[in-house]
């Protein structure tokens, strides 16, 4: 039970800090000519993430705080995934956001995990939405939010890539990178 509360609390605090960073970055980007696209789906994205944590909490409590027998491996994977998350966030710097905000004419980020794939942050979210529920045997949460997230990302990535391609050299820079799987850097 304590392990679940510790992990859950860490993740909630992490998300709140990230929202603060995103808001600060949003203000900076908008003050410097940023354009937000896809804003109509953002409330659904927020609702999905809130619902994920509510669903996780509910399922874990109802199942009696069961921890997976593979917890050491899953916890290690979660820690590695968090490292990749921070690598992606710091690589984007002021351009990282939970919203889709584009700076017309800005250089496309090619450092950090973006040297290897187009969407490392989304790859992290996909992995998190699998690892976290599996860590606590929350199989309903795992399946439901993996499907919901896949639907959300299929829309969000299309909108983001179209916007980036319209306002930057994204299409040219990222043409040889896969969306979610690493590829040897050029």
Overview of the structural elements:
With 186 residues, this protein is mostly helical. It has a single domain, classed as Four Helix Bundle (Hemerythrin (Met), subunit A). It is built from six helices and two strands, in the order H-E-H-H-E-H-H-H. It has a two-stranded antiparallel sheet. It is globular, with a radius of gyration of 17 Å. It starts with a helix and ends in a 12-residue tail after the last helix. The model has no long low-confidence stretch (mean pLDDT 95). It is found in: Membrane. This is Isoprenylcysteine carboxyl methyltransferase (ICMT) family protein. GO terms for molecular function: protein C-terminal S-isoprenylcysteine carboxyl O-methyltransferase activity. Keywords: Membrane, Methyltransferase, Transferase, Transmembrane, Transmembrane helix. Its main location: membrane.
The domain tally reads 1
Which CATH architecture is right? Up-down Bundle
Q: How many strands, what sense, and barrel or not for the largest sheet?
A: 2 strands, antiparallel
The CATH class assignment is Mainly Alpha
Distance N to C terminus: 47 Å
The total of beta strands comes to: 2
Spatial sequence of strands, sheet with the most strands: 1-2
Alpha-beta classification: mainly alpha
GO biological process, one term: methylation
Protein name: Isoprenylcysteine carboxyl methyltransferase (ICMT) family protein
Subcellular location: Membrane
GO molecular function: protein C-terminal S-isoprenylcysteine carboxyl O-methyltransferase activity
